[in-house]
Write a structure and sequence with these properties.
This protein has no helices and ten strands. The chain has strands at residues 2-7, 10-13, 18-26, 33-39, 46-52, 58-60, 68-73, 78-83, 92-99, 112-117. It is globular. The termini are far apart.
Length: 118
């Protein structure tokens, strides 16, 4: 099992930037991918971005392409999400979740709140 802990959220003005971090510990060698998801009040959780644990392949939701960048930090065992040109609709709790090769496992962390103000 892998433990994932999110950090880096906060309050930012529209057009601003934030960098989220997902710290992984435990049996990280079992990971295939790590993804970022988000859930806004009253909405379903949605996929944001994912990266293979080896950091070779990345995928993004259409809504964040060109604005968000997901990356791996091997030294820190983190998966980071650089968010630029933030919009009001990016406001949500952001979670990271593991995929061990059989599909996404539900996030277990508390997530990190991102609030974009006008």
């Amino acid at each position: 099992q892998v433990q994932l802990v999110e950090s880096g959220g906060g309050l930012v003005q529209s057009g601003g930037s934030l960098r989220l971090s997902c710290a992984a510990s435990g049996t990280t060698s079992s990971l295939y991918k790590v993804g970022w998801f988000r859930q806004a009040p009253g909405k379903e959780r949605e996929f944001v971005a994912a990266i293979t644990w080896r950091g070779v392949y990345t995928t993004y939701a259409d809504s964040v392409k060109g604005r968000f960048t997901i990356s791996r930090d091997n030294a820190k065992s983190t998966v980071d999400l650089q968010m630029n040109s933030l919009k009001l609709e990016d406001t949500a709790v952001y979670y990271c979740a593991p995929d061990y090769g059989l599909g996404w496992t539900a996030p277990r962390g508390q997530g990190t709140q991102v609030t974009v103000s006008s």
